[in-house]
Fold this sequence. Notes:
Blueprint (H helix, E strand, L loop, with lengths): L2 H10 L6 H17 L10 H12 L3 H6 L4 E5 L7 H7 L4 E6 L2 H14 L4 E5 L11 E5 L6 H8 L5 E5 L2 H13 L3 E6 L10 E6 L1
Parallel strand pairs: 1-2, 1-4, 2-3, 4-5
Antiparallel strand pairs: 5-7, 6-7
Amino acid sequence: MEREQLVHALQREEHHFSAQQMDTFYQFLENVERLGTPLGLTDAVGDALIDDHLLDSLRALSLIKNLRLNSLADVGSGAGFLGIVLAIACPEIQVTLIERMQKRAQFLVMMQMKLKLKNLMVIHDDVRNIKKRFDAITFRALTTIEPALVQILLNISPRLLAYKGRKDVVTTEVELLQSKGYHCEVVALSSLSLAKERHLLIVEP
Length: 205
């Protein structure tokens, strides 16, 4: 991956980051490209890695910043999307990555050390075992979220921020969650250059 690819992509989406943040993003993506396939994290490289993972992770950035969170947990972080991306973009937020798979958790710990992210920590465990509380929980959930999982997550945070896909799929999911008594809000995540439809599903008790 060329650094210019990253710079151009972020400019295309009108994201503005410091030189240090740009360096950290680039170093992170280089490591994902190099280790993603061997570790079974992702096969994406180059523009696909930037568009489908980095830029996709940043689509709710302005909304997350407006929430003025002190802490955030990213569940099932995998290769670090969303969590590491948000930790780089939001140094004011203490980000915790919760990953139950050992190989992925080891990669996340290595990234935390290499990138020197002081606002990032990694927990290798199942989210069902977590007792610590967070201001919000994020996760990429292109499949249906089960109400049982929602209840587990709301035990440790008052607000869930789920990155979702098409509106029609999200609408069906919202109907199920609302029937269980949860408050739901769906926010369209716009993009200047990405074609894939994305929505943020916000769930509260």
